[in-house]
Each structure stands twice: as structure tokens, then as C-alpha cells.
Write a structure and sequence with these properties.
Elements lengths: L1 E4 L2 E3 L8 E3 L2 H16 L7 E3 L23 H8 L6
Parallel strand pairs: 1-4, 2-3
Helix pairs in contact: 1-2
Length: about 90
């Protein structure tokens, strides 16, 4: 189980994140790449995206500080639900 991964930061928002992305397209592309690494064959059986929402210093959540999605959840959901590869 991977208990902490993610950290996409929207460019120009300040704060901290593992990877800065320029726009929604790059956000989704980077998110997909993170998930792809976890669904490859191997020992990982689950994951927890860190973090769900932005906080004061860390601006790397799937939702902003006001709990508004940064990217349409209908675009994130199918990526997150990608089945693990055998």
C-alpha cells in the first residue's frame, strides 16, 4: 500500500508541491502518469493520494483551500479507477 503520493501544484499558485503543472491538460497528464506507475504489475495493491485539499503551505491537493475541485472530477475518476495490470 502506498500511503502518500501525489503533490501536483498548479503553476503560479504559490505554496509547495512535488510537481508544478501549467494547466488542466498537464494536470490530468501528470495525474495519469502517477496512477500508471501504481497500477503496473508488482506489490502495490492500493494508494492514498496526498493530499485531498490544499492547506496553508501545501497547495498540492485535488481540491483547493475552499474545497473546489481543481480539475473536473469526472475526468479524474476514470483515471483513479483504472484496474491494476496483471
Amino acid at each position: 500500500m502506498v500511503t502518500e503520493f501525489g503533490g501536483l501544484l498548479e503553476a503560479g499558485t504559490g505554496g509547495w508541491g512535488w510537481l508544478e503543472v501549467a494547466d488542466d491538460r498537464e494536470y490530468l497528464e501528470s495525474y495519469r502518469e502517477l496512477i500508471d506507475g501504481l497500477i503496473d504489475p508488482g506489490p502495490v495493491e492500493g494508494f492514498c493520494y496526498t493530499q485531498l485539499t490544499d492547506v496553508q503551505q501545501e497547495q498540492n491537493g485535488l481540491l483547493d483551500f475552499e474545497r473546489v475541485p481543481k480539475v473536473d472530477p469526472n475526468l479524474i475518476r476514470p483515471i483513479t479507477q483504472t484496474p491494476k495490470r496483471a
